[in-house]
Amino acid sequence: EESIKKLEEYGNIAKNENKQDEALNYYTKAVEANPGNETANLNKALSLYSKGQYTEAVESFDMAIQLNPRNENGYCGIGNCFYKTNNKSEALKNFDNALKVNPKSKCALYNKALCHSSLGQYKEAMDTLDNLDAIEKSPKNAITKGLILMKENKYAEAKKVCSFRVPSRQP
User: Is the full-model pTM beyond 0.85?
Assistant: First the structure.
């Protein structure tokens, strides 16, 4: 178990240094040493995703979910892989699965909104972003809403949505 932790640690260092091939190598060795390690499978999946190897990433995300069916990051990861490969219906299913695990998953809500928008389902996208805003308002959400409104030729509304102030943080 100690050697697996070291492999994961080395993988994280390589990832942070933007050495994706090296990170993937360490994560793969960690999974080979202990296929039942959820974190190692998730890290391997994320590494594969970052390299654009979406089919292989789905397999590793799926393994992480098999090890822990409440792994919302696994569902989000699979959703993102399907989104990247233009399989939007499967992407939406996986974002919904993540939301069943955690109804406040910011990753699932934001990516689900993007997916709806890419399908021209602007009302669904806006509703999903409204749900996300109820959890956490952010400039990113406002800009995304503005872009969706612009796709619908609602420029005045888009300008209003994007006219936000970032609250100052009190020390």
Answer: yes
